[in-house]
């Protein structure tokens, strides 16, 4: 389903694409430069196990056009939260200053993407729950963003307080929830549109 959804959203980014999935115990991921049709073979999709998944097609607006900046970005063992996979649509206007501050504290970045800043802030939070850590992280970033986070057992959706970037919620006939930047992805999946994710809203599925 995520693979099909990315076909519908291919026009939003043609540089790279990726999918991360979860089977409840482990998070899997595959990403590469190129179009959706070229990156995901049947064998690759079979390795992305589970019933939850997030995907992304990238058009670089911050950071180089390189495989290192392709999304999802996956970080293992963030404190007690386990593995977290993140996709981000938008631009963080204070990413550089945040990054410099994190680097002074010893953070080592693997990409030039502003998206990675979010994960470093999340990892440094001392909050007891992932949602509280996410709220703390979001209070520090500025700009336009819609985010999807995948963990072993949950899917979290976030939209920036100004609603600069689109994010929509839909539902399949079997009750499964789906999220996408544009509702054309729902049309391809046969999902019913429910509503926009509200500006500043965090959804936990």
The portion of residues assigned to helices is 25-40%
| CATH top level assignment | Alpha Beta
**What overall form do the CA principal axes indicate?**
globular
What is the total number of structural domains? 1
CATH level-4 homologous superfamily: Aminohydrolase, N-terminal nucleophile (Ntn) domain
Specify the number of helices: 7
Mean pLDDT: 89
The run of helices and strands is: HEEHHEEEHHHEEEEHEE
**How many E-type strands?**
11
Describe the main β-sheet briefly. 5 strands, antiparallel
- CATH topology name, in short, is Glutamine Phosphoribosylpyrophosphate, subunit 1, domain 1
> Beta-strand level of the residues, as a percent range?
25-35%
State the secondary-structure class. Answer: alpha+beta
Low-confidence stretches: none
Assigned CATH architecture: 4-Layer Sandwich
Widest beta sheet: strand line-up: 4-5-6-7-11
Distance between the termini: 17 Å
The rounded Rg comes to 16 Å
Q: Helices and strands in order, then pairings?
A:
Layout: H1 2-8, E1 16-22, E2 27-33, H2 36-39, H3 42-47, E3 52-58, E4 73-75, E5 84-92, H4 95-104, H5 115-124, H6 130-138, E6 143-150, E7 155-159, E8 168-171, E9 177-180, H7 184-189, E10 192-196, E11 202-204
Antiparallel strand pairs: 1-2, 1-3, 4-5, 5-6, 6-7, 7-11, 8-9, 8-10
Helix pairs in contact: 4-5, 5-6
């Amino acid at each position: 389903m995520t693979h099909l959804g990315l076909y519908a959203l291919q026009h939003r980014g043609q540089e790279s694409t990726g999918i991360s999935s979860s089977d409840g115990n482990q998070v899997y991921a595959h990403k590469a430069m190129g179009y959706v049709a070229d990156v995901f073979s049947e064998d690759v999709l079979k390795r992305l196990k589970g019933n939850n998944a997030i995907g992304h097609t990238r058009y670089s607006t911050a950071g180089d056009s390189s495989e290192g900046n392709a999304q999802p970005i996956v970080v293992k063992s963030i404190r007690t939260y386990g593995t977290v996979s993140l996709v981000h649509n938008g631009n963080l206007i204070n990413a550089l200053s945040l990054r410099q501050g994190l680097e002074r504290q010893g953070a080592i970045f693997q990409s030039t993407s502003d998206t990675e800043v979010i994960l470093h802030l999340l990892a440094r939070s001392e909050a007891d729950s992932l949602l509280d850590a996410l709220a703390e992280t979001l209070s520090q970033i500025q700009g336009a963003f819609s985010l999807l986070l995948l963990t072993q057992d949950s899917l979290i959706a976030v939209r920036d307080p100004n609603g600069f970037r689109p994010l929509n919620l839909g539902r399949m006939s079997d009750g499964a929830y789906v999220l996408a930047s544009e509702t054309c992805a729902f049309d391809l999946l046969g999902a019913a549109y429910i509503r926009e994710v509200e500006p500043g809203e965090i959804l936990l599925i």
